[in-house]
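Hey, can you fold this one?
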Amino acid sequence: MTHNTLIIRDEDFWEVFHPKQNHLVEDTSWGGFMFETSEEELDYILSQKPEHIWTILEGDTMIIISSGYHLVNRIGYLITKKPIPDGFDFEVQDDDLKKQFIIGVDTILETAKDLLPDMNYGEAEDLYDNISDEIFEEANNAIRYRLHELQSESKNEGA
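Sure. Predicted structure:
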């Protein structure tokens, strides 16, 4: 099955998926929600349904929360009350990181303007296509997720 990866804001993650407090350790990171990779906490994580597990990861330039159980670059785990919908993967970023993404796109476009005089038409067209594909792919994924949510809500209302 192909999974669609959606980037969502940190505040939306907390509001929609409702992470559970770590009941095993009193003073843990992430406001008391993070489960460490120690034996007891990891055993608890692995006993949970996979669709409720999220991994806090150290990315190249930022810390992200990714849906699912991951080992590489893991910092810790979160368990949510609401499951991850089938067919979707999520990457959680906070508003400041979203602003960095927007600034990043602006920087790419500004750099592209500097490069355009040295590019032939085909290279410039490829650069534009790559940038717009990434931007529109994120928007399309958000729309697909919202449609999936609406479909689930209507199924629940009909039940």
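The chain has five helices and five strands. Let me know if you want another pass with a different chain boundary.
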